[in-house]
Amino acid sequence: MKNKLNKIVLSTLLVASTLVAGESTSTYTFDDTYSFVGIEGGVGRLDVERSDGTNPSTLKKYDMFSGGLKIGAQTENYKVYLNANYYDADDFDYLATYGVGIQYMFNLSKRLDAFLGVNGGIANMKFLPAGEANTRTISDPYFGGEAGVNIHMGQKVDLELGARFYSMDASNSIADVKYTFDNMISAYASVNFKFKMN
After folding, report:
1. 26 is a domain residue
2. What pTM was computed for the model?
3. Quick check: is 56 in a domain?
């Protein structure tokens, strides 16, 4: 998973450097405010810690694939959105996040901008650890950060490549066995369709 994330970051940097080459930052134009709908997919990892009060705690890292939908609005420098993502991982009946995010965009050229953002929301999951009989259900808040680039494929379509970090600190205890769902990271690609609301 670490190699996959590294390859995604490297590919993003190569694409970004190609697009920026020879572009003037002063030629970027953005008219008014746009609404957008985005469809995204990605890969990620979730840390889950198990403790029983007797033995040393153990940490397991779950690799996962994700798909999601987001809607929002953007100006030249800001993007605000609502999103829902579903994750597929071993030992989880379901794992989903529902949240809101805001990004600040740095206009690097007329075809590319970079962004930094913050996000927060609710994580819902149903978890049945291998070899155990008790199902764990979680519905807890998360908060985190994100960074990446937007590649302007045209006036109406952007390709967004980014990475997110979620901090949850959610836990579930049954019969003195406690599972803590801690940090989640993901790398994603999103195709955003922009349009104007009249």
Report:
1. no
2. 0.80
3. yes
